[in-house]
Amino acid sequence: MIKWGIIGCGKIAHKFAEDLLTIPNTQLCAVASRNLEKASDFGKIYKVSSCYGSYQELAKDSDIDVVYIATPHVFHFENTLMCLNHKKAVLCEKPFAMNAIQVEEMIQTAIKNKVFLMEALWTHFLPHYAYVIDLIISKELGLVKSLRADFGFAANFDPKERLFNKDLGGGSLLDVGIYPLFAALSIIGYPEEINAKATFGETGIDETCNILLNYKNDVKATLYCAITEKTKTEAIIELEKGAIHIHSRFHEPSSITITTGNTSKHIAFDVQTNGYSFEAIHVQEMLLKNRTESTIMTFEKSRQLIKLLDAVRSKIGLIYN
Fold first, then answer.
1. pLDDT tens, 265-276?
2. pTM to 2 decimals?
3. Across the chain, where does the E strand assignment appear?
4. Residue 214: which residues within 8 A CB-CB, separation 6 or more?
């Protein structure tokens, strides 16, 4: 039985908790919020035995094997270090932290304490995405020539809400732009050249961001993210012998269409959960094998992803305090 704790009680924490209920030999034993009433309300829904009004209390709970951190971006670093230093395995939501320096300290702390740590980039574990990655690696359709990926939604403007609050790491890049960037990184690799431009809102955060990544042999990734407009949120990969279309929304459980010549094949993937179950199952497999690093979402992948995010932020002039 793997016993989980959750830090943070927002929307994504609810989805993750729902999925934990579907996994055998798994128990959600504790939840923590800075507001005890919020933690208690969350706990009642999922029949959680221990509800805490501080994150520190959960980190000290000797009954917990692994903690899922679902707090705002700016708190990932301190929340992760706290749990790792209490010898708790950690699955931390993306982005792992606010910059590469923080990510490296998190990784080194996990190594020092010999405790498992992984960035919760759930897309990497979804059946449709794993299928696409395997297909690309096989070179059945030849080499990748280009990628187009986007993620945009229209959020209601509220300067105090996390998305528009710079003090909480708000903005389109860290919240949703990370998914097209991860697609480029996992499908093509780290680029040779990075170009980006953004539009900024009244609270100082990037509301939209256009990104162009250039690779060897004229391979390109054209990416876009927004929190002020809804986009198709799909990914289209052009290869030498065909194309792969990951349908909307590409970062969630989805379907794909493979086109070669005049032939198209649509593949649906039967997913019965929200989709977070796949990364949770992987974490548990790693724990049962006494691993301290994921074999899929490795430390190096998290290093590369935050390096890319930092580079784009530098290009658009986005600075967090």
1. 999 999 999 999
2. 0.96
3. 2-7, 26-32, 50-52, 66-69, 89-93, 117-120, 144-152, 193-200, 206-214, 220-226, 235-239, 242-246, 256-260, 263-267
4. 191, 192, 193, 194, 195, 220
